[in-house]
Amino acid sequence: xxxxxxxxxxxxxxxxxxxxxxxxxxxxxxxxxxxxxxxxxxxxxxxxxxxxxxxxxxxxxxxxxxxxxxxxxxxxxxxxxxxxxxxxxxxxxxxxxxxxxxxxxxxxxxxxxxxxxxxxxxxxxxxxxxxxxxxxxxxxxxxxxxxxxxxxxxxxxxxxxxxxxxxxxxxxxxxxxxxxxxxxxxxxxxxxxxxxxxxxxxxxxxxxxxxxxxxxxxxxxxxxxxxxxxxxxxxxxxxxxxxxxxxxxxxxxxxxxxxxxxxxxxxxxxxxxxxxxxxxxxxxxxxxxxxxxxxxxxxxxxxxxxxxxxxxxxxxxxxxxxxxxxxxxxxxxxxxxxxxxxxx
Length: 344
Known about the structure:
Layout: H1 2-17, E1 22-23, E2 27-30, E3 36-41, E4 47-52, E5 57-61, E6 66-71, E7 83-86, E8 92-97, E9 100-105, E10 111-116, E11 121-126, E12 132-137, E13 141-146, E14 151-157, E15 171-176, E16 182-187, E17 191-196, E18 202-207, E19 212-217, E20 223-228, E21 233-237, E22 243-247, E23 270-273, E24 279-283, E25 288-293, E26 299-305, E27 317-322, E28 328-333, E29 337-342
Parallel strand pairs: 1-26
Antiparallel strand pairs: 2-29, 3-4, 4-5, 5-6, 7-8, 8-9, 9-10, 11-12, 12-13, 13-14, 15-16, 16-17, 17-18, 19-20, 20-21, 21-22, 23-24, 24-25, 25-26, 27-28, 28-29
């Protein structure tokens, strides 16, 4: 019995260290002087938009590693850019500071429109052409907003029933489907929910074990990806509502239940699909970047981003993206460092 326990402990130690190898990036750049608050890559992989702390947001050209534009929502003083994003066609960028969003024309760097809301904005997603916004607000709602018409089209809420609460729960993450027909929301009620943008009707609901902090549509359609804090990231079939698989960063055998340790249940903070939609890259607050096969959820590789300053705690991956040809991965971290990783 003692020998069996010692063997299990030895196996556990090996598994915990299997995904902790630090890897030096092939290229890296300082994209923020202090620390970045938010980051997003353009759909074509050419630009990264970095939201600085108490400084203008910066649009970086990745090929030339230079700032193309500096953007701030208020002329009198630059605040902290808390959320950034691009339209599906990459022609429109958005920066959010507290309760104000500015849409920018990427080609010219000029502001297109400035929108002010009565409550602070937690996260946002842009439609294919940037003419609609899906916003998670701190009043425990998400709104579908018509930019051209300057009106709220739909209001979405997460009731507290899944967590036995009498009040609505905060919505943390939002996404608009590539088709523009559906919305995906994730909240503190531990659910991800699928909605019709035309009718506002809830179509699906997926329960997790913690607050849902990230949601995304599979670009080819038919599936969504959702992740919970200190939990697992799941790939769901929209039509059947069934879970196809769960991403597992640990090498723990699939025929055994995962031990109840944080090392085995990693929060996902950033995701992107490869240009051919066959691969998925995820970023995590634990300094890790992982590469997966979309078809079956099998892990291909997982490496640890080296910290720039030893005395600082772990590095949060804010955004990850494949290069246009799929030969490399770009990442942006909360320490203000952008990095490029060649796929070998």
